[in-house]
What we know:
Blueprint: E1 9-13, E2 16-25, H1 29-37, H2 39-42, E3 47-50, E4 57-62, E5 72-80, E6 84-90, E7 100-110, E8 113-121, H3 128-146, H4 164-171
Antiparallel strand pairs: 1-2, 2-8, 3-4, 4-5, 5-6, 6-7, 7-8
Helix pairs in contact: 3-4
Amino acid sequence: MSIPTPTGRRLDRDGETYVELVRTFRAPIEDVWAAVTESDRLARWLGTWTGDPAEGHVLFQMTFEGDDVPREAFRIDECVPPHRLRITTSMPYDGENPEHWLLRVDLAEADGVTTLTFAQNVPDPEMAENVGPGWDYYLDRMVAAETGGDPAAIDFDDYHPAFADHYRKAFG
């Protein structure tokens, strides 16, 4: 595999500042949608979820950040298959005042190529130096999982702290 480079950029939208990253897949939009919304597909590169999305929320579990990572509540704010997903997360380890993050996934297909645009809000610009490298890492794991590669071959040490300066400059 080639040496990764930071791909995220700053996006200001709807009064929020986001880190936005893009990946492309030579796959139908429905297939990429499944990779981000079906628990067993998501498990290959990020984590799993339980619950009934029809109720408007699920519990999400990161599976590649250690055994003691608590499940997060994901409120599904908008779901327009296979094009748009909006989620608000709640961090259970933040006590009575959990931090809420906004996640945006947008998909578009043209000429057999599906473009995934992912964004997470960063209410504190200092968060970007960790959020950006983290999502570069996870989205590269997604690309590996969806293209027949080995997500385990993607090493977080290649992303952080190496990418932190790129994101500090973009959000500073």
